């Protein structure tokens, strides 16, 4: 018996806004909408494909009333694939991200950022050729 990692749920105030932001960051598409929820992904999951092998998880944004109050215990790491880390950070700033300080220090070799609702994520080294 086993399980699959099928989706990552993110509590937020505005699921539409965060889904739009992360679709731009990751080149994902909205795959499902329900009241107070938006799911995005790089593919549309089917039961058969998920049962056959581990596939990339989707991201589900769920509307909640409370604010985020502390540093995230779980966060996303992204790696640019066709630009430098510096250029990707600038692109993400233009999309509404901000730089974040979680105590990473000046010698850190990744960039800590926050999405439009303050959820931290990291931009790692570029994978561009």
Question: What does the model show?
Answer:
The structure is a single chain. The protein is α/β, with parallel strands linked by helices. The protein has two domains: about 5-65, Signal recognition particle alu RNA binding heterodimer, srp9/1 (2-Layer Sandwich), CATH 3.30.720; about 75-125, no CATH class. About 20% of the residues lie in helices and about 30% in strands. It is built from three helices and eight strands. Strands 1-4-3-2 form a four-stranded mixed β-sheet, covered by helices on one side. Strands 5-8-7-6 form a four-stranded mixed β-sheet, covered by helices on one side. A hairpin with a 5-residue loop joins strand 7 (about 110-115) and strand 8 (about 120-125). It is globular, with a radius of gyration of 16 Å.
What brief labels describe this structure?
129 residues, alpha/beta, Signal recognition particle alu RNA binding heterodimer, srp9/1, 2 domains, 4-stranded mixed beta sheet, 8 strands, 22% helix, 28% strand, globular
């Amino acid at each position: 018996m086993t399980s699959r990692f099928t989706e990552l749920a993110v509590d937020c105030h505005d699921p539409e806004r965060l889904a739009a932001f992360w679709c731009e960051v990751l080149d994902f598409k909205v795959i499902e909408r329900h009241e107070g929820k938006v799911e995005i992904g790089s593919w549309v999951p089917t039961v058969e494909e998920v049962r056959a092998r581990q596939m990339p998880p989707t991201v589900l944004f769920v509307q909640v009333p409370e604010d985020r109050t502390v540093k995230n215990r779980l966060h996303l790491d992204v790696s640019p694939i066709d630009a430098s880390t510096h250029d990707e950070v600038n692109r993400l700033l233009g999309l509404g991200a901000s730089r974040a300080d979680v105590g990473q220090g000046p010698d850190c070799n990744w960039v800590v950022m926050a999405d439009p609702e303050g959820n931290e994520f990291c931009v790692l080294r570029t994978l561009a050729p």
